[in-house]
Amino acid sequence: MSISNERIEILKEFQKKYNLTFSNIELLNQAFIHTSYTNENNIDVINSYERLEFLGDAVLKLITSDILYKHFSDFQEGKLTRLRAEIVSDKHIFNYAKKLGFEDLIILGKNEKKQGGYKKESILACAFEALLGAIFIEYKKKGYNKAYEFIEANFLDDILSTKNKISLLNPKAILQEYTQSINQKLPIYTLIDEKGKEHDKTFFVEVSFIDKIIGKGSAKSIKQAQVEAAIDAIKNLGINKEE
After folding, report:
1. pTM of this prediction?
2. Strands (E), 133-239
3. CATH number of the domain that 46 lies in?
4. Most buried by CB count within 10 Å: which residue of 125, 142, 203, 209?
5. CATH number reported for the structural domain that contains residue 208 in this entry
6. What are 142-181's pLDDT values in tens digits?
7. Catalytic residue list contains 129
8. Are 50 and 141 within one domain?
9. pLDDT one-digit tens code per residue, 19-38
10. Does residue 242 register a pLDDT over 80?
11. Confidence at residue 165, expressed as pLDDT on a 0 to 100 scale
12. Catalytic site residue 53?
């Protein structure tokens, strides 16, 4: 996929601003390509950010775990899990993406642009994970260290301040902690339906525990639908969300 000189200059400025150096500029650009663009232009979806997002999601979770483990030595596993779940949630990393100016970097199809896709939580959050995946690949054996450095330089204060928001943490983590306290089993999230056009779908999710449906939710992304299902389950089970 060819990249215009103007686009290259934009990506160079981004790298300079955040202390990144990509020898493979196509890889960095790919981190910002939404599937709506590849679909509209008959480009293989493998050239979108989806695969990088898959990798970056794992990188982000490991870095966050690493930081929390080092900085909160007195926290037990349950609290660390809840903090991590909040930090890696779409809602949270969407704000990271906005801070980095992703609204001006994301590449969308025409229809998605008209629908304001450059401001959508799920799209920008996924692109942020894709960027971490791209950093991990670009820097090869030093990929994790560079991704860690990037997160630490730009978001460490935010990550550490999350401990002050314990009562507002991710409902999925709260539900998981509750189910594990009963029998060490995890709640199971199942996508049961999806409705709407390809780039404007609503996803419907059920969450179950010990073969019983305990909550339902719907949203414009599967991740958020899972969150809504967890909120519903917390309400149905009467779980106290406060510390």
Report:
1. 0.72
2. 188-195, 202-209, 212-219
3. 1.10.1520.10
4. 125
5. 3.30.160.20
6. 999 999 999 999 999 999 998 776 544 568 888 988 898 8
7. yes
8. yes
9. 999 999 999 999 999 999 99
10. no
11. 64
12. no
- Residue ending a domain, among 164, 182, 211, is 164
Catalytically annotated residue among 121, 129, 228, 232: 129
pLDDT given at position 5: 95
Helical H segments across 162-197, by residue range: 171-183
Distance, CA of 80 to CA of 69 (rounded, Å): 8
Q: Which residues, including other chains, have CB under 8 Å from residue 33's CB and lie 6 or more apart? A: 1, 47, 48, 49, 107
Closest to 192 measured CA to CA, from 161, 226, 160: 226
Its sign, for the CA torsion 233, 236, 237, 242, is positive
Q: Give the pLDDT score at 166.
A: 55
What is the tens place of the pLDDT at every residue in 41-94? 999 999 999 999 999 999 999 999 999 999 999 887 777 887 888 899 888 999
Question: What kind and span of H or E run contains 223?
Answer: helix 222-237
My answer on whether 105 and 219 are in the same domain is no
Q: How far is the C-alpha of 33 from the C-alpha of 125, rounded, in Å? A: 13
* 198 and 85 both lie in a single domain: no
Of 90, 140, 117, nearest to 33 by C-alpha is: 117
Instruction: Judge if 181 and 158 occupy the same domain.
Output: no
